[in-house]
Amino acid sequence: MRDKERMSGRYEEEESTHSRSRQVRQRARKKKKKKMIVLVIIEVLALLVIAAGAFAYFYVQNQYDKIETVAFQKHEVATNPDLPSSVVETSKGYRTIMFYGVDARNNSDLTKNANSDSVIICSINNDTKEIKLVSVLRDTMVQTTDGKYHKLTDVYAAYGVQEALETINRNFDLNITEYVTVNWYAVAETIDLMGGLDIEITDKEAAAINQFLWETSKSTGIASSNVDVYEGVHHLDGIQSTTYARVRNVGHHDITRAERQRKVISLMLEKAKQSSIGTLNDICNTVFPNISTNLTLSDILSLASDVASYKIADQGLFPYKYWDQSGGHYYVYCNTLTENVDQLHTFLFGNEDYTPSSTVQTISDYILDYRSEHE
User: Fold this and answer.
1) pTM to 2 decimal places
2) Of 79, 233, 325, 360, which shows the fewest CB atoms inside 10 Å?
């Protein structure tokens, strides 16, 4: 009896050992199978990413042909010959692009013969992806490369986009070579395609939107309707949002308008991050014909690949200190240009070692003398 019990116990032990061995082998097979599945998934995902990247490249390449590109190259954009070395060094870590919003009614007027209602310096930190925006008041007195003085907004219309870039570089000791220009149709249509914007506005701003809505609608050919007049958050369509960004008669003229424009840009960037690929495709189809730029296809793809990482870190208004004069021609005078440009370089690039070039100093002295004579 004991022998049978011992034999039975041994068989049970062997069976138990064999069972555990099977379980181990089964777990190993399952683990190996799971690992293989994971590897297959990774491979499929990698192929999808590559395919998506290829699709995006060829899609954008196809749409890129719709953008109005200019004849001049980036290296042809002039900077001050006495540009401080500190500017060259500090700007290497940033990508700085000029953004122009023009009052052109069609895409044939994107590079000339249109006033630049919106002039914004966009500085992107290459490491942190932080964006800083500086709105330049359109009536700021500046010197063009031929030595003449104009309102900044008139330079774009009279001379064209290359001179507009070079004027910014000349007066502010910058070395910006890239630009993007859009008309108000592009802004309005983009906002509509993204489903509109929720903007907090005052009752006076709401009334002003209704006052000038017809003008934006007429110039773009896009229909819209009046907004309810109250203070608070409004859901605005493209024309309403664009009109809001163009309002000058509420607040302090261009100063408050520049703030509104930066607010709209910030909200559009956040909406773009949340938009579907289909929506972004629609924007490309509709908006690209209303854009002028000297960014290359690879530039655009590079910027687009980082869109989810971008965040607007700070915003400002130039000039920081100024006089304005309404007698005769309305001008905004920097007080003084050298001090304002110094502050601009600190804001954009954190450059504490900047010293104005002799070119900027000469322009600054002229503006002081001119204002004294016309007080």
Assistant:
1) 0.76
2) 233
